[in-house]
């Protein structure tokens, strides 16, 4: 049993029913004992879907399946298991995926191409597909509208707390809801950031527009978050829109009627991404890194991620040490333009280095106090132009080693 | 006091005199108490030099100085201090560097442009240059030909053991010697790998040819070694050739007369690079990673370094866990071509995965025994073409966190 992250919220936010979505979960015994490990989301007919998948070249068979069917733009079911990622399982793994998809399609009553699937857990072991098939009747019976809590728990692996978020929003004057769950705490890096996240809305939005909104929001949320720079073979994020809210379908992604919906979608994704970073394996501090003064926003993000992924920066924060020299090192290795003699670094809002050297007169007391806290802010200006970016990460502690030196056993 | 690496050799190899080189060291009190921290190498007139420097964009003032004078191709002195890297020290740092250079030039009796300099230690604090100037008379008095042991110890920072290597070699029929020292244990990554290494030979080799030999040998040694993926602002490697051996100067880098010399230079650099990886902060295992079957050698090296830099792979090895799934993950995120369904992975010579899936019948006993040892071999074939590469790294343990969460204090 893992020690819960100090950032674990006292309880999950309450998520109400989202019209057109039913959720179910059962204990299929895939790997874990005495906990649910199989999750099914049933979506209303004509539900539109968009997804973002890992770019790993050794991606799992379930990810390959989603790549194949997502362009269709509709789905009726999402089936997810924890405990086994069905990754690097050869041709058997492909067969397993297709059997799982067929089983969910039969249960929901749809074509296989309308089923999305995700598996998370150990890599390289065959998934006992017969357990999934055997569990399907009970899983179907368990479907109900207010099952968010169980769904969030079912998809967990090394997570120390379930993750969910909700927004009441609108498209034009029509009230719309967005709810989502996420899991992930290791192998967290851009490209994608979390291992798994599933978002549901009752909005009526055609798949091409849904895709466009989702891509932009993921670039500003999960793709700004990193734990250890490693990329999973299974990362999958799906957004399903049932259309039950009854709004008039937008005809383009930048329609003014979508402004509020997009803003709420982005803020919900940021909330989920931050929950994942806060559950980073062994995390004791949540770190926000702002980079400004870069050649452009893209360069700023590269520099920010170089800082966020540096083991030396992350261990310094774990040690509550204002070692800004390591921040400078990470700026230097990022490979993007930076003016060494105009660089400034601040921690907790206090400027520690300016114009390329330490500020000898700075007051260390508030910085020390800031570093003893759980939420750390580092800001760097690299003195070139106006590009800026913000990314999130956590510190690197003994807990990370404890978890990862003995995960498989 | 750091716990010595389990790989620390019982003693330094004996390095005999190298004609045209004298070494000295003193305790200047720059940061450490009761140990030598200032090193000077005096080179015979007309000594030829080549160097490889960090590509960090926030490199230190001493690195900037070397970049400026190395193209001249000759040097009479190399001055090195530990305890303070004189990096990110603004215009003051530039003045400090020039004062140190001037001081060494006066001591040895040469032009400032014939002095190379390196500083290692804390970033962002002003280096007390007056202590260096005050120590210069004693430093000059300490120069002698057989001072390798002291030199190797003087340049250490978080190193747990001094590092030196030697080769008796030849150019044509003429006996030639190469000796070198290195330091480095954190911020170890390609581009460059070690923080500091200084190599000396009595060979007669013009600077342009020396550069060409050195670049090739560094690409195959230090640039194949990584500890934590971080890149120092101070990485510096210098090769000085005094010409005292009396061989006829080669006229091109691929002259057959240089074959033996080059092979011994490369093997010496590999030995030093491996010593640095073996002293990786907190290292308990030394890991050799071979990648074959890649699109070309460059792609193979990218994949090998992706494996070597993966915190999840490094923690699995620390935990003596044959978690080859993480190796596959690291192959996938490298971004180079790999055929997931032809991938094979072996550990300690035993094939664990083949044709994209686990070998169910493999004998786990020899793999477990191998992982309990200190020298770990991982081999991956990615099934595309014939590109191959070998890199070295160490595992990621609690020791790394201990050292880096509290280095500055």
Automatic annotation (TrEMBL), chains A, B:
Site residues (Cleavage), renumbered to this chain: 193-194
Residues the UniProt record annotates as site (Involved in the stabilization of negative charge on the oxyanion by the formation of the oxyanion hole): 120-121
GO cellular component terms, A-Z: cytoplasm
Catalytic residues identified in the record: 194
Residues annotated as transmembrane: none
Transferase listed as a keyword: yes
Pfam families assigned: ArgJ
Chief place of localization: cytoplasm
Catalytic activity, reaction form: N(2)-acetyl-L-ornithine + L-glutamate = N-acetyl-L-glutamate + L-ornithine; L-glutamate + acetyl-CoA = N-acetyl-L-glutamate + CoA + H(+)
Record's subunit section: Heterotetramer of two alpha and two beta chains.
GO MF entries: L-glutamate N-acetyltransferase activity; L-glutamate N-acetyltransferase activity, acting on acetyl-L-ornithine as donor
Stated name of the protein: Arginine biosynthesis bifunctional protein ArgJ
Keyword tags: Acyltransferase, Amino-acid biosynthesis, Arginine biosynthesis, Autocatalytic cleavage, Cytoplasm, Multifunctional enzyme, Transferase
The organism of origin for this protein: Aestuariispira insulae
Family the entry assigns: Belongs to the ArgJ family.
Localization per record: Cytoplasm
Role according to the record: Catalyzes two activities which are involved in the cyclic version of arginine biosynthesis: the synthesis of N-acetylglutamate from glutamate and acetyl-CoA as the acetyl donor, and of ornithine by transacetylation between N(2)-acetylornithine and glutamate.
Enzyme nomenclature, EC number: 2.3.1.35, 2.3.1.1
Keyword Cytoplasm: yes
Pathway: Amino-acid biosynthesis; L-arginine biosynthesis; L-ornithine and N-acetyl-L-glutamate from L-glutamate and N(2)-acetyl-L-ornithine (cyclic): step 1/1; Amino-acid biosynthesis; L-arginine biosynthesis; N(2)-acetyl-L-ornithine from L-glutamate: step 1/4
Residues that coordinate or bind substrate: 157, 183, 194, 281, 404, 409
GO biological process terms, semicolon-separated: L-arginine biosynthetic process; ornithine biosynthetic process
């Amino acid at each position: 049993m893992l020690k819960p992250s100090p950032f674990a919220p006292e309880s999950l936010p309450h998520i109400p029913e989202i019209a057109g979505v039913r959720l179910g979960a059962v204990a299929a015994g895939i790997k874990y004992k005495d906990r649910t490990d199989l999750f099914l989301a049933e979506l209303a007919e004509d539900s539109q879907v968009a997804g973002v998948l890992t770019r790993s070249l050794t991606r799992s068979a379930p990810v390959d399946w989603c790549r194949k069917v997502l362009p269709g733009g509709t789905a009726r079911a999402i089936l997810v298991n924890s405990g086994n990622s069905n990754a690097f399982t050869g041709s058997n793994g492909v067969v397993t995926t297709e059997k799982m998809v067929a089983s969910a399609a039969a249960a929901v009553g749809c074509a296989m191409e309308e089923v999305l699937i995700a598996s998370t857990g150990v890599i390289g072991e065959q998934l006992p597909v017969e357990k999934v098939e055997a569990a399907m009747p009970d899983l179907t019976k368990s479907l109900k509208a207010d099952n968010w809590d169980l769904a969030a728990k079912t998809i967990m692996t090394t997570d120390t707390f379930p993750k969910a978020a909700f927004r009441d929003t609108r498209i034009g004057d029509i009230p719309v809801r967005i709810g989502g769950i996420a899991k992930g705490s290791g192998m967290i890096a851009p490209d994608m950031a979390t291992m798994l996240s599933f978002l549901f809305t009752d909005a009526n939005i055609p798949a091409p527009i849904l895709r466009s909104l989702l891509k932009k929001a993921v670039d500003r949320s999960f793709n700004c978050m990193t734990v250890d720079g490693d990329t999973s073979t299974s990362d999958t994020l799906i957004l399903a829109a049932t259309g039950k809210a009854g709004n008039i379908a937008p005809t383009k992604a930048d329609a003014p009627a979508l402004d509020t919906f997009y803003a709420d979608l982005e803020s919900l994704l940021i909330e989920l991404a931050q929950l994942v970073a806060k559950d980073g394996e062994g995390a004791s501090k949540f770190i926000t890194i702002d980079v400004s003064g870069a050649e452009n926003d893209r360069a700023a993000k590269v520099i920010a991620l170089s800082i966020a992924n540096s083991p030396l920066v992350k261990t310094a924060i774990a040690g509550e040490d204002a070692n800004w020299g390591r921040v400078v090192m990470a700026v230097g290795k990022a490979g993007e333009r930076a003016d060494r003699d105009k660089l400034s670094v601040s921690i907790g809002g206090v400027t520690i280095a300016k114009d390329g050297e330490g500020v000898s007169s700075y007051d260390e007391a508030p910085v020390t106090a800031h570093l003893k806290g759980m939420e750390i802010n580092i800001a760097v200006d690299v003195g070139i132009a106006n590009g800026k970016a913000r990314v999130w990460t956590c510190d690197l502690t003994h807990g990370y080693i404890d978890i990862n030196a003995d995960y498989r056993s």
